[in-house]
Amino acid sequence: MSTEIVEGAAGSPELRLTPDPSLSRLSGGRTLLGGSPYRVLRLSEAGARLVDGWLGGEAVSGGAGQRRLAGRLIAAGLVHPQYAPGPLTAADVTAVIPVRDHPEVTDALGNLAALARVVVVDDGSAVPLPGAAVRHPVSRGPAAARNSGWRPARTELVAFLDADVVPEPGWLDALLPHFADPRVAAVAPRVRSRAGGSALERYEQERSPLDLGPVPAVVRPGSRVSYVPTAALVVRVSALRALGGFDETMRFGEDVDLVWRMAGRGLLVRYEPASEVRHAPRSRWSAWARQRFDYGTSAAPLALRHGTAAAPVRVSPWTLACWAAIAAGRPAAASATALITASLLPRKLRGVGVPAEEAVALALRGHWGAGHMFADAVTRSWWPVAMPALAASRNGRLLLTAALARHVTDWHTHRPPLSLPQWLTARVADDLAYGAGVWWGALRHRTLAPLRPDTSPWPGRDGVRRM
Fold it and tell me: Burial of 249 by CB count in 10 Å (0-12 exposed, 13-18 middle, 19+ buried)?
């Protein structure tokens, strides 16, 4: 399926664009750099003038050419759309709430009264839930529960909500206008942890894996926001039917799988943090650690279905060689590799208007950014092997210390509402639990796929575009 935006029809909602924080403009505005994954776009003079106006606050016209260019910029993640309210309302949405042994689900229904229907699916609760529209005699898992809930829907959209999620008033107002773009198959709000006084609740307010931050994004593998959870997700019913819904063979990660299948079909999934819902974190550290472990076990089935989309690290072969030299205690070889590759990039980007000094800076920033990815992998997905291996040598211990020191830097930068010892303990436990789950899933599925890095070259064939 093509990612081209269709011609804007008369009466389409007004569209304005805001720049992504990563966007840079060079050569008088004709060269655009940014997005996620990072890319370089070269505009015609006419296209550059249009972008000037859009970023200055002008609306995108209904003409096919303007809509097509705007659609490409949106799909690249260089800009984000802001639509005027369209024809879709809460009456076009069916809510589906899967529940298992969670009788207080009714606490979340207050802000759902305007929806066409609220379908509570009781997935084999020990005590049957009164008022559930669908009941499974035995638990079949969250994927099957959601499928049982959306398939009878007669509305254009369905909103999946976890039983512990409470939407904020007006939560759909920022989500529904995105469906004016026919490519958009799903839109997710920001899922924030409910405020609380315990150390666990305060940690979750800062590091919940469901909270994907304050910046909007296109959701796809390998990007800044590579997944969104079905803790809260609004989806076109037609897209669910086309994809067959959730994969019921997956106990965890079925929501990531659905989003990646949408992306594989050329559909857009958007993250819209202007809409917020609140979720309740686990009440005990043991349950919290088990949740992180379970999340990690999904890496193997996701890697088997989606290949390098689930890779823990994405770097070019040259960057991999650079950091391998550092790990081997050969800083001179690492520096030479970094400088040689940095000197080669200007030739590749000269034709699209990127000055040599900017190209060299891009290459060096790429090498440095890869170091952060390796540090994450060493202390998270790879830790059962990487941490003992690094601890065996002096140079390795220095690298391991540097990797763990990032947690101290994060604490000083963000000042979370925990003491430094509490923060470090929780961060390390978070990484260890998730990484243990990754390895358990890899062993269970007899695959190394979720552990292998993706060494695709950058910028690849899709990294440079002319428009």
Answer: exposed
